[in-house]
Task: structure prediction
Amino acid sequence: DGGITQSPKYLFRKEGQNVTLSCEQNLNHDAMYWYRQDPGQGLRLIYYSQIVNDFQKGDIAEGYSVSREKKESFPLTVTSAQKNPTAFYLCASSIEAGYEQYFGPGTRLTVT
Amino acid sequence: GDSVTQMEGPVTLSEEAFLTINCTYTATGYPSLFWYVQYPGEGLQLLLKATKADDKGSNKGFEATYRKETTSFHLEKGSVQVSDSAVYFCALKETSYDKVIFGPGTSLSVIP
Result:
């Protein structure tokens, strides 16, 4: 089955630690995205990548980093510089940038 | 800049009631418009889309018509079910750039 996987579904970390969220897709999509969703709010774009080895900052990139070394993988690192990291993180992909996006199931990160 | 506005929720309806969720947009060109649905604890799924004025998107009994004159893309369903309880996001993609802009989401709760 083609799709997007995110792991783990729930993640707990202590304040001051970096943590990496996984996102893998087997849809052969060029573009991939990371969003943050806070309770009762919409999606805010963190980073996106239109093609392998290239990525751009979204609206709230501070405190986050990404890499795109392989077409199917777009991991997100939440660094200790992110002031309020507890949130639901969604990864998405599209065949090309700007086309309809397909979402993974999300990772709920809790930092205490 | 471009933006999407949705009616504030939460919306609570009885089963078999008629649903309308309002969505209006601001864009400089001729965007594509989307409705996504997010079930509790999951990622977003594309529900329907329309790419030009007067197009009607439909899926699973939901419909939305792209109205350029009123810059609207209201979501409707004739008879909601308990299983339709979810958060609904209106979104647009401008033709001139590749990002998708999401509205804040409208929470729908359908009670038996």
